Amino acid sequence: MKKVKKSNNRKNQQKARTSQKTAQQPKKTDDKTNNISSKRGNTSSEDLSSNAVRAENTQKKADKSLVKPLSRDERKKQKRKELKSRKRKRIARWLLTTLIVLGVIGAFIFGFIQAMRLGVFDIAEIEVVGNEIVDTDAVIAASSINLGDSIFFVDLNQANYNINEIMGLDELEISKIFPNKILIRMVEKDPIGVINFDNKLYYLDKDGDLIEDSEYLRKTDIPIIYGVNSVTADAIGRSVEVDPYWRFNIVLRILNELNAQGFLAKISEIRITADNTYEILTKNGTIFTVWDYDNFIENEAYINTNLNKNTSNMSINLTTGNQPIVKTR
User: Fold this and answer.
1) pTM value surpassing 0.70
2) pLDDT per residue over 141-151, tens digit each?
């Protein structure tokens, strides 16, 4: 009996296992069917979207085919309309630009007129640069430019001519500095000497023309000429009449030769003496005495040697012949 029961139990267990397996198998098949249906759903949606795109493209082509092409006259009319439209735009831009420019010009003119009325461009300063001997007021007066004149009405060419006509400068430049200044740049002629006569100084160039006359010494590195009897100076830039002229002419020739040799700056004075000799006084206190220009040229090498040595406080008489007479002062 026990054996029969055991066999029955085994049979029951086997039935239970088979029933469990059969219960599990439908689930797997359901999963497979679900996957297959999802894949079919995706492919069907993609097919629908691609079909929609194709349908849209075909519709566009159909619409284009329905558009009637323009005739030749219609194309010409359309082109003319486009050209007219462009032309109107160009004219509008040109008018706008013209109005802006005219506005700016008008504002500038208005501001300029107001500035003229207020005297902004009236000359308030005249500056003279480079004058060591010539007086500043004399230069300004010669230019004929006045304070208060409008800077726009100043004739620089005429002012340049006026100054050069009177003064005979080496260089002259006149310029306007806006809004109200005149600048006069000048280079004076190098003076060869200055005549001291009757408490007045006459600055002369190498030709004996007057550079400036003054009551005080303005330049200290040029020789002073003493011993003339009279001086007549009509105007700046004109020749000076000196009495005795022939003696002054000898002095002028000696000064020009000293200048050519580079020794003019070492000479302090030249004196025309009563015994018809000429004394050349150096800044070191040495005096060279000569008869005339020829006597000076004969002893020029000796004079230049002593000037190079800066011989000081000696009296050297060169009028006695070949041998100079040298004395201590």
Assistant:
1) no
2) 999 999 999 99
Are 162 and 104 within 8 A, CB to CB?
A: no
Poorest-pLDDT segment among 22-31, 85-94, 220-229: 22-31
Q: How far apart are CA 230 and CA 241, in angstroms?
A: 8
What gap in Å lies between CA 75 and CA 69, rounded to an integer?
10
Mean pLDDT over all residues of the chain?
A: 84
Distance in angstroms (rounded) separating the CA atoms of residues 97 and 104:
11
Q: Which residues contact 318 (CB under 8 A, 6 or more apart)?
A: 288, 289, 290, 295, 296, 298, 299, 302, 303, 324
207 secondary structure, DSSP code: T
Token pair for residue 104?
Answer: 């700016």
Spatial CB neighbours of 91, under 8 Å, sequence gap ≥ 6: none
Q: Structure tokens of 306?
A: 């002593």
Handedness of CA 213, 217, 219, 222 (dihedral sign): positive
Which residues have C-beta within 8 Å of that of residue 213, sequence separation ≥ 6? 200, 201, 202, 203, 233, 236
Q: What is the pLDDT of residues 115-162, one digit of tens each?
A: 778 889 999 999 999 998 888 999 999 999 999 999 999 999 999 999
